[in-house]
């Protein structure tokens, strides 16, 4: 059999009564943990942003089996400080400028504490009415802040038949939002063309669409050869071209294939490109394609009137997802999905086992969110976002977005002021894409890429700043993403000084 | 366009500086929340277990839009108490005996606080080495507690090539575990039979397999007509029959179809049936079928030697999932998945966008968990389970399982002592399946079902206990699931007294 490990029964010392939720212990330990966390936040700048450990560092320092007897909280917290923290890349550090930062706030932390504490499972309305109803309220609130059309909201709901309205739901990640809508679109299409024709379904995106899109399509049974990721170029700032999309679709139709779904992006991962929704919706509508908008990052900015135009045309798409964990201070993981026709989701995703049957569900007077998602169980997730929206108000959230954008513009200005560097695409949100300037370096592409790589590696190796890179249009660029919650002007300025220092050393070689 | 909602810009009062993570505010508010939660736990028995509100109760009492200006924590907590709590079904109530309870503990709460607070995103090793490595350690620890064979563990890992070992990963839910393994199996099969033959793939389970299985199969592009849910019966205690599985598979092969995947269950939702793994593995192995074991509920009991035999044969399956949020005190959501060939998961689920490329990943010396799951982002989820295992030790966790089983047996004894009731299947874990006894009632099946329904409805309408029902083999039964963390003997006894009182009133009519 190859069984391993100890028998866990060889110790016969008395252990006393076991109360996993003793209320006085809960209270005192949780207070202790609050202070531990507040101290971590206080000291966060003292840690290297990017962890400098080697693979295997932790496994080799921990026991190979769980303890048979309890250990004290003090011992565990000591291990967290000595063994875990050194191996963390500190996403909340104000010097974290990598990927897109994952933003946080006191209000969201409190909301998450509550969600955990209640531990109610809202797979259907009856299993926890408040969990379902608060989620509907919060998704409508955020929809209104984004000025989404009513067709995405529950607000017109009547409790005779909730299935006739649009509405929103919280998913864990954009990946789940895409899979759920894709499968809804797929099953609608298969009803028309027949399940035996699944191999004819074709989906569209651009080469800048998030990598999870391809994975989601493959998960849903779309043939890899039927996933079209259309090339973009610097002349459109890496946005998807409506005319190229049209040509691609028409070629597929001519080949006897069935165009199914297109994923458009508001704020791509590499460069925050924005696909032109209105024009692309024109193209897709002509072919009855399900249009999804992935606004994971850029969508949050659209709560400010000056950014809302990026969602122009949204009334013509089928679904929209947005990740408040990226830019609305909400901790991971939190993805909002709005759909115009939840009934299509429900059709594709509903289950109705006897052990979950109940009168409210059968009266069609309630929303059962299990039928809007991949899994069955679900937490009381809306509390977190509800606390953020109420504790800060729309006004402060707008201030927060604008502050990040202002800092990014400041960084862009610093880069532009140094002729050794160039900006690759105009800074639209809070990401700055730049590199060492070829016209200054006067070198071939390979050497230019090598120098940029070296500069980035050096900056990250200091542990004082963490930035990441990408390659677009064949060009290696550095990404400076402003937005960690604790970042202030001084951190941005210090990061720039560090980058300049690296360039000084590198270009003297 | 149909835009709605306020403009959110009509208020021009000064708001002051906005600091979403002010450390002193964080500390004081989080302490306040700890006390709020501890008080909720203290008062939990005073609330009706099953919420008695009507659909729409909350939506109609909340504003239609988010506030423009901040609201105080006091106002929000007051709303939680007055508006949210009354609409909750209290899963943590000691009088919650519905579904399977979702268990909790102080240690898991602390672990979740830490996970939230760190907010590090461990999509690949470098993005947070400690998050990846601790997860590997914790999954190995739990594997050893379950006496899983080494083929499911990282323990044999060498850091030259990690891809050659088995290992575990944390998923959100069983649904995700099933989808990931199913897609790994699917893609392996399609390599052999060709992607154009996806419609020939057939999957197997029983009519007791969790409802999410069918959904997962449909999501992965398995034709609904190719999902075989084999009937079970009371004479095998609702376990899947190896001989019937063999006949079903052979018929499909004879029809030119390709058997792909079978989901076996250790502890079904309706009655905690256990499929006989060894014998079923014999059948499946003959046809090269991927064997998954869903031990969401029953698996946790197998940390006790006296229950371990339910996993006999586990060395011959391909993957195993288990939900510590069900019975290992871990809060939602937490599902462990172990696989023998992670490389097949990675092949099906990997993404490699430029913006995530890094040296450790390219050296193949590390695990990148994004390639073991549906989405990209992931939290530092192992902290919660790590704190549970260390804070309590294996000994206390075994005590906890045994205590729940003991209370269920006690309830079973009470039911058996009353000739008006009957036990439907022997109580194996901590779920008791029972009903009003037909041989006492001397009525037809319809009236017997009606009386049982009425009894359950009455019990739940009191708000003093919450139980659920199921139908197996055409028979309506009540499920009494012991296991809410705060439940003590006295709650079980009181629930039985209430049920008897209901029966008294009902049978006098």
Automatic annotation (TrEMBL), chains A, B:
The modification N6-(pyridoxal phosphate)lysine is found at residue 326. InterPro entries: Aromatic_deC (IPR010977), PyrdxlP-dep_de-COase (IPR002129), PyrdxlP-dep_Trfase (IPR015424), PyrdxlP-dep_Trfase_major (IPR015421), PyrdxlP-dep_Trfase_small (IPR015422), Pyridoxal-P_BS (IPR021115). GO terms for molecular function: carboxy-lyase activity; pyridoxal phosphate binding. Signal peptide: none annotated. Its cofactor is pyridoxal 5'-phosphate. Keywords: Decarboxylase, Lyase, Pyridoxal phosphate. The keyword Lyase applies. GO terms for cellular component: cytoplasm. GO terms for biological process: amino acid metabolic process; carboxylic acid metabolic process. Transmembrane segments: none annotated. Belongs to the group II decarboxylase family. PANTHER family: GROUP II PYRIDOXAL-5-PHOSPHATE DECARBOXYLASE, TRYPTOPHAN DECARBOXYLASE 1. This is Tryptophan decarboxylase. It comes from Nepenthes gracilis (Slender pitcher plant).
């Amino acid at each position: 059999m190859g069984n391993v490990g100890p028998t866990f029964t060889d110790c016969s010392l008395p252990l006393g009564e076991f109360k996993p939720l003793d209320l006085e212990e809960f209270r005192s330990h949780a207070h202790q943990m609050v202070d531990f966390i507040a101290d971590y936040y206080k000291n966060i700048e003292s840690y290297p942003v990017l962890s400098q450990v080697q693979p295997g560092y932790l496994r080799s320092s921990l026991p190979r089996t769980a303890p048979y007897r309890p250990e004290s909280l003090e011992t565990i917290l000591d291990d967290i400080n000595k063994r875990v923290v050194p191996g963390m890349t500190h996403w909340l550090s104000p010097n974290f400028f990598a990927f897109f930062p994952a933003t946080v706030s006191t209000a969201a932390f409190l909301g998450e504490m509550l969600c955990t504490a209640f531990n109610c499972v809202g797979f259907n309305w009856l299993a926890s009415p408040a969990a379902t109803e608060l989620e509907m309220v919060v998704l409508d609130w955020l929809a209104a802040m984004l000025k989404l059309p009513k067709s995405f909201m529950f607000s017109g709901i009547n409790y005779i038949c909730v299935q006739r309205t649009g509405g929103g739901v919280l998913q864990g990640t954009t990946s789940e939002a895409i899979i759920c809508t894709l499968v809804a679109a797929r099953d609608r299409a298969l009803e028309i063309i027949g399940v035996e024709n699944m191999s004819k379904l074709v989906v569209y995106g651009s080469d800048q669409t998030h990598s999870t899109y391809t994975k989601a399509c493959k998960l849903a049974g779309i043939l890899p050869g039927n996933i079209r990721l259309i090339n973009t170029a610097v002349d459109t700032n890496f946005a998807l071209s409506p005319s190229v999309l049209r040509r691609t679709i028409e070629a597929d139709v001519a080949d006897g294939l069935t165009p199914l779904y297109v994923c458009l992006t508001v704020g791509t991962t590499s460069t925050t490109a924005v696909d032109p929704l209105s024009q692309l919706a024109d193209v897709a509508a002509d072919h009855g394609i399900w249009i999804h908008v992935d606004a994971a990052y850029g969508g949050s900015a659209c709560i400010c009137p000056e950014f809302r135009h990026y969602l122009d045309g949204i009334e013509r798409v089928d679904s929209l997802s947005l990740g408040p964990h990226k830019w609305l201070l909400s901790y991971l993981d939190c993805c909002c999905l709005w759909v115009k026709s939840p009934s299509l989701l429900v059709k594709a995703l509903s289950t109705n086992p006897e052990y979950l049957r109940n009168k409210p569900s059968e009266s069609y007077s309630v929303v059962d969110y299990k039928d809007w998602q991949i899994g069955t169980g679900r937490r009381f997730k809306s509390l977190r976002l509800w606390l953020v929206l109420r504790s800060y108000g729309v006004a402060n959230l707008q201030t927060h977005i604008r502050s990040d954008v202002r800092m990014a513009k400041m960084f862009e200005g610093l880069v532009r002021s140094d002729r050794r560097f160039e900006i690759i695409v105009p800074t639209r949100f809070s990401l700055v894409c730049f590199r060492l300037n070829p016209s200054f370096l006067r070198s071939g592409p390979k050497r230019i890429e090598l120098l940029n790589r070296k500069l980035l590696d050096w900056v990250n190796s200091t542990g004082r700043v963490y930035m990441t890179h990408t390659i677009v249009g064949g060009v290696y660029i550095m990404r400076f993403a402003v937005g960690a919650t604790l970042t202030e002007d001084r951190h941005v300025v210090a990061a720039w000084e560090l980058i300049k220092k690296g360039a000084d050393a590198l270009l003297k070689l």
